[in-house]
Amino acid sequence: MKTNNHIQKLISLLAASSILIGGTIGVNLSAAAQNYPNKPIKIIVPATAGGGADFIARTLSVQLGEYLGESIVIENKSGASGTIAAEYVSKSPPNGYLVLMAQSTSMVIAPHLYKSLNYDTIKDLQAVTQVAQMPFILAVNAKLPVNNIKEFIAYAKANPGKLNFSTSGNGAGSHLAGEMFNSATGAKMVHVPYKGAGPALNAVVAGEVEVAFIPIVAALPLVKDGRLKALAVTTSVRSMAAKDLPTLVEAGLPGYDINTWFGMFVPANTPAPIVDLLYKETSRALKQPEIRERFLKEGADPIGSTPAEFSALVKAEFVKFAKVVKDSGAKLE
Hints:
Elements: H1 4-17, H2 23-34, E1 41-45, H3 52-68, E2 72-76, H4 83-90, E3 98-103, H5 104-113, H6 121-124, E4 125-141, H7 149-158, E5 164-167, H8 173-185, E6 190-193, H9 197-206, E7 211-215, H10 216-224, E8 228-233, E9 259-267, H11 272-286, H12 289-297, E10 301-302, H13 307-328
Helix pairs in contact: 1-11, 3-11, 5-13
């Protein structure tokens, strides 16, 4: 059951927020916010069970439900790079009972890949908090004659058009990571799309291609076994799950930063006190040692940013990937 502390907190936040919503709708929303939550909350996951977003949502759900005083229900709604789920949540009532656990693909990449979508990432969805991020690892076949990222950059630049990098398909994060690397270094690696992450990973292990940008959780076991060489992570700061690996920024590529991030969104116009409560209790849950340990084991760095910080990130990434996608020529129907 929800506690009186939650009610008092929401009442105080409402008074401080100075939200002006006209007429009866404003009164109803304010009243609903004061009593939030008083029924189960549903988290919509834009992917099938077992994927990264599903893992993030389910790992958080029990602890978050305890903090909010209501149960959390997970619903998987996959398809179209996560855009089906994003549209569904964007058009739902702004009352805090339907939350999207999105990943960066559907929020800042897919809008530039599809000719048209029935939702606007910036206008129709309110960012709540960035929950976690998973970097890619720039990995190469074990037989490639390089041993660190600086050697690889020099080798790639000296052999333009001779290195191939595998990805899970056009427009995938791994594809855009490679295109960003080409742009930053002038390496001119050739993109080789495969039908899924598994075949793309197997291709670089087998030597069909020389390079791949691989999700960290999939890459590390192969690196440990000596089947791949891990050279760098693609985030602007080192990953907590692989602290010994340098970033591409450290290797001399300023501004290079791409990862798969996961974050909470609610429909636009959700009352600020509800957004703030969801953020604070999620951030609180992310500080729990057991949850942090489970995240790091899967290669996910826990974040817990404020709504303002996350909103700024989403807007910046939306602009960044508009250019990256355009330059790559990737498109989806």
